[in-house]
From TrEMBL:
It holds the Pfam family dDENN. It comes from the Eukaryota. GO terms for molecular function: guanyl-nucleotide exchange factor activity; small GTPase binding. The keyword Phosphoprotein does not apply. Keywords: Guanine-nucleotide releasing factor. Signal peptide: none annotated. GO terms for biological process: retrograde transport, endosome to Golgi. One of its GO terms (cellular component) is trans-Golgi network. This is UDENN domain-containing protein. It comes from Coregonus suidteri. Residues 53-607 form the UDENN domain. InterPro entries: cDENN_dom (IPR001194), dDENN_dom (IPR005112), DEN5A/B (IPR047278), DENN_C (IPR043153), Tripartite_DENN (IPR037516), uDENN_dom (IPR005113). The keyword Cell inner membrane does not apply.
């Protein structure tokens, strides 16, 4: 299975989408989503209770403001594009994976951004970027419906309190639960004392409260530029919610992003106008690592290096992985980061970073998967019944916690690898141990680098001063890092102290400093990971079994064909590598990688990842003559970070394409 974007598209974005409440159809319970939530909530409380019925799926025990209602795609522009047909069901589910949510003025209503992926049958991907916000409900019919739901909810709670052991018959159940848009008037009038006793903080009173409902604006794009798309959507939302009209009609900005802004060419950067300010993005050249625009620092902040490396190992061995978080963006960022770090290998199996609530049955699939499950934040790990847990990697992102499958082998040179990654993170002020609460707000030391501290003359530091100065000892964050340094053996004095491009006054950086630092950290970490595979598989071509017949015949009989001499390769490896490598060579991702090597006719015919990887292998073999008898487990650090980082810095200094 190959993954990639639709090569026919030359536009930055293919569709602009609006999802939300369809006032004509009203409040429709999202029965599948609600049923899953209901079962999860009741089976642990009641123990022996059986499967809930469809009626119970509406979950009347749940407060109406916390129930699940159907969202719909209200509009999308254009109607269709030939290279990327609009998938209304997929877009609707992934824009608002848990349907509509309601709030009152007492609740927080901050806009939330999250990316998502739609994978087509041929393995190609389309990316979505959604900004969900809350707008006031102006429909009196919807407000009345919500009020009716609260009356029914309070009546239900009152009856449960007074007759807990007397279940209603189905006829009575239906009588008490009419459709909220057509309620029987006799059931909307209940004794006032009962209601007042039962009302809670998240109640709704039509005469007192303002009702808000979630709404989503979304861009569907052929390539993943989450930072640029987030800015575009935030500026559009700002224009909608601002009392002052934007400089131009909103339609003109939407038209611009859909029809006038192109994809940046390979190796180039792109700058175009948003509603209130410029938006910048860049695309790597064909000689660089593939495009990756998600903040990888967040993954290490949330999980820590040790957990990230364990999760990475599980992904490489194609173990079932379930990510768990209250935040859709975290699910997507962790999933995309782990799969990006696999270069030159690609995840070949089920990949659903955000699993809509109505598709929870996918977790029963007896195949490798990497899926993300949204948490309500109300329960814990024990409330999830997961199949085949012996072969499952469960990652509770918000709580800095990971459950590993049995008999997980160690990644080769694990301790040295952790040390090298830690050095990169420390240079950017990110703790290798992680901090699960770090990315909630504005991180004070996220953009802090060792160079900033060493050359900060205002604080009495000279460039030659050691990093364990009085200032550092007084700083709690750095003190924690220093304690970690002592345990892991990382030397702060050995950190590469370079002049930061963003602080060089001669260079005019065309994007904000934090965004540049994100790109710099991303590429440094990715290069360290890529170097591990370049070192481990520097001689892989010698063990590829070329077919004796023509390649078309070979491929048609692929299941019976060997493509790699695994036994000879393993016999040439250092002993500590064998537990991991013996399992990794059996994975689908490794088989597919070798297949692509066999099927390419020349360098021009190679897939992008294979071409970049082979170039790096050739470079290593020229610089370091290797023979099978000289193979050792000596750890060799990455040496091409500076070159990769320079390419990024030059693109943001010289924006050479404008849309």
């Amino acid at each position: 299975m190959t993954t990639g974007f639709s090569s026919n598209s030359c536009r930055f974005a293919d569709y602009f989408v609006i999802c939300g409440l369809d006032t004509e159809s009203g409040l429709e319970p999202d029965e599948l989503s609600a049923l899953c939530q209901y079962i999860e909530a009741t089976k642990f409380r009641d123990g022996a209770r059986g499967l809930a019925s469809a009626d119970e799926g509406e979950n009347f025990e749940q407060s109406p403001l916390r129930r699940t209602f159907k969202s719909k795609v209200l509009a999308h522009y254009p109607e269709n594009v030939e290279w990327s047909p609009f998938d209304q069901d997929a877009v609707g589910m992934l824009c608002m994976p848990k349907g509509l949510s309601f709030r009152t003025q007492a609740d927080t209503r901050e806009p939330q951004f999250h990316p998502f992926i739609i994978t087509r049958e041929d393995g190609s991907r389309t990316y979505g970027f959604a900004l969900t916000f809350y707008e006031e409900v102006t429909s009196k019919q919807i407000c009345s419906a919500m009020q009716t739901l609260y009356h029914m909810h309070n009546a239900e709670q009152y009856d449960i309190l007074h007759t807990p052991t007397t279940p209603r018959c189905p006829e009575e159940q239906r009588h008490l639960h009419p459709h909220p848009l057509n309620p029987h008037p006799q059931h909307t009038l209940l004794p006032t004392p009962s209601i007042s006793r039962l009302q809670r903080f998240n109640s709704y009173d039509i005469s007192r409260d303002t009702l808000y409902v979630s709404k989503c604006i979304c861009l569907i794009a052929p390539m993943a530029f989450p930072q640029a798309c987030r800015k575009v959507l935030q500026q559009l939302h700002q224009a909608v919610s601002s009392p002052q009209p934007p400089p131009l009609p909103l339609e003109s900005y939407v038209y611009n992003i859909l029809y006038e802004v192109p994809l940046p060419p390979a190796g180039r950067s792109l700058k175009f106008s948003g509603v209130y300010g410029p938006v910048v993005c860049q695309r790597p050249s064909t000689a660089e690592l593939p495009l990756f625009d998600f903040p990888i620092s967040q993954v290490f902040e949330l999980l820590g290096v040790e957990n990230v490396l364990q999760l990475f190992t599980c992904a490489l061995l194609e173990i079932q992985i379930l990510l768990y978080s209250q935040h859709y963006q975290r699910l997507m960022t962790v999933a995309e980061s782990i799969t990006a770090l696999m270069f030159p290998f690609q995840w070949q199996h089920v990949y659903v970073p955000i699993l809509p609530a109505s598709l929870l049955h996918f977790l029963d699939a007896p195949v490798p998967y990497l899926m993300g499950l949204h948490s309500n934040g109300e329960g814990d790990r024990t409330k999830l019944e997961l199949p085949q847990e012996a072969n499952l990697c469960f990652v509770d992102i918000d709580n800095h916690f990971i459950e590993l499958p049995e008999d997980l082998p160690q990644f080769p040179n694990k301790l040295e690898f952790i040390q090298e990654i830690s050095e990169v993170l420390l240079a950017f002020g990110v703790s290798p141990e992680g901090n699960p609460h770090h990315s909630q707000g504005q991180a004070k030391h996220r953009c802090l680098r060792s160079t900033d501290m060493v050359t900060d003359r205002r604080n009495g530091n000279l460039a030659s001063s050691p990093l364990n100065s009085y200032l550092l000892r007084e700083n709690e964050t750095i003190a924690r890092l220093q304690a970690l340094v002592k345990r892991t053996g990382v030397s702060l004095e050995k950190l590469d102290v370079r002049e930061d491009a963003s602080s060089n006054k001669d260079l005019k950086v065309q994007c904000d400093e934090e965004e540049l630092k994100m790109h710099q950290l991303n590429i440094q970490v990715r290069e360290v990971f890529a170097n591990r595979f370049t070192q481990m598989f520097a001689d892989y071509e010698a063990f590829v079994i070329q077919p004796s017949q023509d390649k078309e015949s070979w491929f048609s009989n692929r299941d019976q064909m060997q493509n790699f001499d695994k036994a000879s390769f393993l016999s040439d490896q250092p002993e500590p590598y064998l537990p991991f490598l013996s399992r990794f060579l059996e994975t689908q991702m490794f088989a597919s990688f070798i297949d692509s090597k066999i099927l390419c006719h020349d360098d021009e015919d190679k897939e992008h990842t294979l071409r970049v990887f082979d170039f790096r292998v050739d470079k290593i073999r020229m610089l370091n003559v290797r023979t099978p008898t000289l193979r050792t487990s000596m750890y060799q650090k990455c040496t091409n970070i500076d070159e990769a980082e320079k390419a990024i810095e030059m693109r943001v200094v010289k924006i050479d394409h404008r849309g």
